[in-house]
Write a structure and sequence with these properties.
The protein is an alpha+beta fold. Helices cover about 70% and strands about 15% of the residues. The strands form 5 sheets. Strands 2-1-4-5-6-7 form a 6-stranded antiparallel sheet, with helices on one face. A hairpin with a 3-residue loop joins β6 and β7. The radius of gyration is 65 Å and the shape is flat.
């Protein structure tokens, strides 16, 4: 097959595109998104998809947001056929086939699609077409060619074989069709699963029925066992009831003994509490007497230490009073110095503000003068409307008018009239008096009429070109007049003069603006005026607040000197005041500590005396209420009573331990549980007995034996049917596998031409020492370079891509004599270095001598090394 042309309309983002292909190599260049890959997609869809298809990939080619059909058309040569083939998808879909040779035909719709497919499949190996296509974004390193019958025939012919006859191919197809009746082609999975499933269903039914009958036998045996167990349990009930009553009587006796022990323990609890209380009271009485003796000793010591503290506090109080008088005198002196310092600061600030106010007032006067100058310059410039561009346009228009006038005058007819005697006539309605010796000359750029009264009318018409030149002069004059009116000038000279005045005025304006900026130095005029008002108000306030009887310093320097003197005097006074305040604070702290110590000692002495007196009184009252001997006697009596109760408790505990209450309780509980379990088991067994009896009665009425016999017969029939199918399937499989083995064996004989073709192109790219090893499926297994064997999977991405393209080119060259298929390479060799790109260009060009190659790229420089190639740019 040879592609001649390909045309697209409204295909994704491509509104229209037309490509003419060379017989050898065609290079299609264009940036991304221009529609290169759309060419490949459209060609594939034209050959395979019907125009009325609703597949997602077909609907996806319609331009987004446009209700239009997507069209593709191709001119193709295929064997003896030369035809135009076109389809429109989605909107107003349709198919048209126009065959030009060997005889004219024209078809539409499905007839056109079927006829085109008949021609293509009859003259072109579609499996090879798919294998040789290199699509953008897909891995192209490996290529599978073993499925191509066309390539197989070409390789067989190249190897000297007789080729595959039509009868042999038909036989293989018939065997494969029979194989596919029983197995899937790709996975070999059996297709007679329905028969296998039927056998499994009947087998399952038989097994279920047998299981049901076995379960019935189990139910019968279980029914007999349950009945025997019910009888045994009913016989054991009286014995279990007697054992329960015996153990309950023993437990009642133990429970009575436990109650007596608990009562005796409760009787001893209040007695033990009374003993604890008596002991606590006796201990408290002894501790109170010891505490009073200790407090009496502490009171005597504190009374001896109080007198020295009082004397020291009195002496410190006199010292603090003297220091406070000195500190007060220094504070009075400091206030006077602070007032003087404050006045000196106000005077300094006033004189500084006054100087700054005078400076700002002078600055604002200069600013106002410069702003008036700016206003005058702006007014002058506002009256000038001409611009640099306007001046240039006017001068250009005047120059064009001058050129047009001179051209008109040079091309116009020149009229000259010389009177031999006085004559009167009219020239285009204008009265003319002509005297001898005074000739009349005119340029005739337009029609001219001379009327000689009662004699003649003469019309002089210039050539057509002269009239056009005159019209052009008028147009240029109109253009000049329009520009003069737009810029409000009367002539070119005035435009030049005003433009020069404008330029000079703009220069003066910029100079004045710069002077104003220099004067302001980045300051804001309104801010300056605000500062003036603020300073004026500050000066007025300072004069109003000042004591008029005190003389104002003559200058800011004198005010600063007075400020410095007042500050130094105040600093000296404050330093002395701080020292005196420090001494006073220390003396006050010492006095406070002494007074605090005296007060604390006095407070502690009074508190100790009061507490001691309270404790003496409290102890006397307690002894009067209950003497010490009575407390001690109560403790002895409570101890004797508690010892008697303790002896009785020991006797009761010994008796209880001898009865072993834990064992008695366990035996009682176990006897009760055994009786309950027997009663519960009887109920459970009776329920199970009823269920089993009901199940046995139902099974007897359902005829399970007859159902099992029918199921076994159906299973035997299904197994016979499946066995027959499996025998036919095995025979078909054996024949298909035998033919495939023979076919693969024969293919091995003509792998050499494909290997030679790849190696021939590979030496151009990889060097003379290049060789390959092909597998049974004609894919490259290993690459041999410099005597080293490298597995194909270990090669770089770029090398795999290069070998994939070379394999496709070699296959295309082999099948070229049988009509062949074009090799389309879409945006490949992105991983190749410049050296490999150069050698790959030579290899592609070499393949193009035998096969049609189409290369699409968004990087034109990548294929700059292709030789003779037809370049199409999108």
């Amino acid at each position: 097959m040879k592609l001649l042309t390909l045309t697209l309309e409204n295909w994704r983002g491509v509104s229209a595109s037309h490509i003419e292909f060379d017989n050898a190599v065609t290079l299609i260049e264009g940036p991304n998104e221009v529609g290169k890959s759309s060419l490949v997609e459209a060609l594939r869809m034209l050959l395979r998809e019907k125009s009325g298809s609703k597949k997602k990939e077909v609907q996806a080619v319609q331009p987004v947001g446009q209700d239009v059909g997507s069209s593709v058309a191709a001119e193709v040569r295929c064997g003896d056929y030369h035809f135009h083939y076109s389809k429109t998808y989605n909107r107003k879909h349709g198919t048209e086939l126009r065959i030009l040779a060997p005889r004219a035909e024209q078809l539409t719709g499905d007839d056109a699609h079927n006829r085109a497919w008949e021609i293509l499949s009859g003259h072109m190996d579609m499996a090879l077409w798919d294998a040789l296509l290199v699509e953008q974004g897909k891995e192209i390193g490996g290529v599978r060619l073993a499925d191509s019958d066309g390539l197989a025939r070409a390789l067989d012919n190249a190897a000297g074989g007789a080729g595959v006859s039509g009868e042999e191919s038909a036989l293989f197809d018939a065997v494969q069709a029979e194989y596919e009746r029983y197995f899937t082609l790709k996975t070999g999975k059996a297709r007679y699963g329905e028969q296998q499933q039927r056998v499994e269903q009947h087998s399952t039914q038989v097994q279920q029925l047998k299981t049901t009958l076995r379960e019935l036998d189990d139910d019968l045996r279980r029914f007999e066992g349950v009945s025997a167990e019910i009888s045994r349990l009913q016989r054991a009930l009286p014995e279990l009831q007697a054992a329960k009553e015996q153990h309950e009587q023993r437990w009642t006796a133990i429970d009575s003994l436990q109650a007596r022990l608990t009562a005796k323990e409760e009787e001893g609890k209040p007695l033990r509490q009374l003993l604890d209380h008596a002991r606590t009271q006796w201990q408290k009485r002894q501790e109170a007497a010891a505490d009073i003796a200790r407090r009496e000793q502490d009171l005597a010591q504190k009374q001896a230490a109080l007198q020295p503290l009082a004397e020291h506090a009195t002496e410190l109080e006199r010292t603090v009073q003297a220091a406070e008088a000195t500190h007060k005198q220094l504070q009075t002196q400091r206030r006077a110095l602070q007032h003087a310092l404050q006045q000196a600061r106000r005077d300094t600030a006033y004189l500084r503000d006054a100087a700054e106010l005078a400076r700002l007032q002078q600055l604002l006067e200069r600013v106002q003068t410069q702003r008036a100058e700016l206003a005058a310059l702006r007014k002058t410039l506002a009256d000038i409307h001409i611009t640099v561009e306007g001046r240039k346009d006017i001068q250009a228009a005047a120059s064009a008018l001058d050129v047009a006038s001179r051209t008109r005058d040079n091309a116009a007819t020149r009229l000259s009239i010389e009177a031999l005697q006085a004559a009167e006539f009219q020239l285009n309605g204008e009265a003319i008096s002509l005297r001898p010796g005074t000739p009349l000359e005119r340029q005739v750029a337009e029609s001219l009429q001379i009327d000689i009264p009662e004699l003649a009318r003469i019309t002089i018409a210039p050539a057509a070109s002269a009239g056009e030149l005159a019209a052009e002069v008028d147009a240029k004059q109109q253009e000049l007049d329009t520009l003069l009116a737009r810029y409000q000038v009367k002539s070119v000279e005035q435009a030049i003069t005003l433009d020069e005045q404008r330029a000079g005025g703009e220069q003066l304006l910029r100079s004045a603006q710069q002077r104003l900026q220099d004067t302001l130095q980045g300051a804001d005029e309104e801010a300056l005026q605000a500062d003036c008002a603020r300073l004026q108000q500050a000066c007025d306030d300072a004069l109003q607040q000042r004591d008029p009887g005190q003389e104002l310093p003559a200058s800011e320097r004198e005010a600063r000197a007075q400020l410095e003197t007042a500050s130094e005097a105040l600093d000296a006074c404050e330093s002395e005041l701080d020292q005196e305040a420090g001494r006073l604070a220390e003396q006050r702290d010492e006095l406070t500590r002494a007074q605090s110590q005296q007060q604390q000692a006095s407070t502690e002495l009074n508190a100790l005396s009061s507490v001691l007196e309270d404790k003496r009184s409290s102890l006397a009252q307690e002894r009067e209420a209950e003497p010490d001997a009575a407390l001690e006697q109560a403790v002895t009596e409570r101890q004797q009573q508690l010892a008697a109760i303790t002896d009785e408790l020991e006797q009761l505990r010994a008796q209880l331990q001898a009865e072993d209450p834990d064992s008695a309780r366990l035996q009682r509980d176990n006897a009760s549980q055994a009786l309950r379990r027997a009663e519960r088991d009887i109920i459970d067994q009776q329920q199970e007995q009823a269920v089993l009896k009901s199940r046995l009665d139902r099974a007897q009425a359902n005829g399970l034996f007859e159902e099992l016999e029918a199921a076994e017969q159906a299973l035997a029939e299904a197994e016979d049917t499946l066995a027959a199918i499996e025998r036919r399937a095995a025979a078909a499989k054996l024949l298909w596998e035998t033919l495939n083995a023979q076919r693969d064996a024969s293919r091995q004989a003509y792998v050499a031409p494909l290997r030679d073709g790849i190696r021939s192109l590979g030496k151009i790219v990889f060097g003379s020492d290049f060789d390959i090893v092909l597998g049974e499926d004609w894919t490259i297994l290993d690459v041999i370079r410099d005597g080293k064997t490298i597995p194909f999977d270990s090669l770089s991405v770029g090398a795999k891509e290069q070998l994939g393209i070379l394999t496709r080119l070699a296959a295309a060259r082999i099948v070229a004599d049988q009509g062949g298929v074009p090799v389309i390479i879409d945006d490949a060799l992105g991983f190749s270095d410049p050296t490999r790109l150069q050698s790959m260009g030579a290899a592609i060009a070499a393949a193009g001598r035998d096969a049609q190659v189409v290369v699409l790229t968004c990087t034109p420089g990548r294929f700059m090394y292709l030789g003779e190639v037809g370049v199409r740019r999108l």
